[in-house]
Amino acid sequence: MIRQSALAVGLMLAALVPASAETPEQRQACTDAAFQFCQQYVPDRDRVFACLIQNKDVIPPLCREALAPFLPPDPAPPPKQASKPTKSKPKTAAKTAPKPNSKKVATPLNLNPKAR
């Protein structure tokens, strides 16, 4: 049973990747990865392939090389925003002068937060 499954996965992977771009080592790496990460989908070729693509970050590098033409491109990192140096203004006392056309009466600044 295991031998038949291994043969099915090997044939499946051989059909997925063009023979000219695949080495026997890559084929073996993908077969091993299929049994390690995607065994529940064997012998369904399409589901095993989709599973390998989903697990592209954990499959062996040789298998990733063989599947590279079929892998979606990695998303581009978000553009870095140029950090502008912020000009920190020294903290000053609140303005006590009334605004023009304001009917509020200016009061002195209260620096004691408990006394209100």
Distance between the termini: 85 Å
Largest sheet: none
Mean pLDDT, all residues = 74
Tell me what portion of residues adopts beta-strand conformation: under 5%
Structural class: mainly alpha
* Helical residue percent band: 25-40%
Low-confidence stretches: 16-20
Helix segment tally? 4
Radius of gyration: 33 Å
Query: Which word captures the global form?
Result: rod-shaped
- Count all strands and give the number: 0
Spell out the helices and strands N to C. HHHH
Summarize the model shown.
The chain has 116 residues and is mainly α. The protein has helices at residues 2-16, 24-37, 45-54, 61-67.
Describe this structure in words.
With 116 residues, the protein is an all-alpha fold. It has a domain at 2-70. It contains four helices and no strands. Helix 1 packs across helix 2 (24-37), helix 2 (24-37) crosses helix 3 (45-54) and helix 2 (24-37) packs across helix 4. The longest helix has 15 residues, at 2-16. The protein is rod-shaped and about 90 Å long. The model is unreliable at 16-20 (pLDDT under 50).
SSE diagram, text form:
Elements: H1 2-16, H2 24-37, H3 45-54, H4 61-67
Helix pairs in contact: 1-2, 2-3, 2-4
